[in-house]
Amino acid sequence: MSAFTDLLAQARESGCLPMGLTFDQETAEDLDLSELEFRDAVLHKCRFLRCDLSGAAFLNCRLESCDFTGCRLSGSFWRDCRLTGCKADGADFRRSRLKDTVLEQCLFRCVPFTGGRWDRLTAKECNFTDTVLSELRLSKVILEKDDLTRAELFRTPLSGVDLTTCTLDGIVLSQTCAELKGARIHASQAAVVARILGIEVTP
Questions:
Q1: DSSP state of 143
Q2: With 90 as the cut, is the pLDDT of residue 192 above it?
Q3: How many CA atoms does the CB half-sphere of 6 hold within 13 Å?
């Protein structure tokens, strides 16, 4: 075990890490870190591979180029965090809550966010390809230049969300496209919605 994994194991026993720690290029694999609390932490190029972080809390944390590939993050809570260039392909974010948090240039491909909640979340240039964003509760969410190709948005009300700069090709909605009611889309994206409704659009 490395000093990093030793520290995580000790923190797992107490329930939280010491506040204000900085981690650089550390790796944790196949660890049970469920319910662990990260507070005021800075993580740079850290890798959490196939770790169980279900129910974990990240409070006022900064994560840069970190990897959460294959991790369990169901029921996790993120508040006042900023994630830049992070990767979480194939991770499980079901029932997670992200509040007052910024995601920038992150990869969330094939990730289930089902049943979660996003409050005052900003996502910029993130990749949500093939991601399940169903039954999400959204409040004051900003999506900017995100790739939502083939994302499943079933039963996620998008009222008030500006989607004009996002890629919507192949998104999955209900037959009536009710999820888009009150959302803002660009005229060029109307054809995508028309195809979902079974309407043939000719140039």
A1: E
A2: no
A3: 3
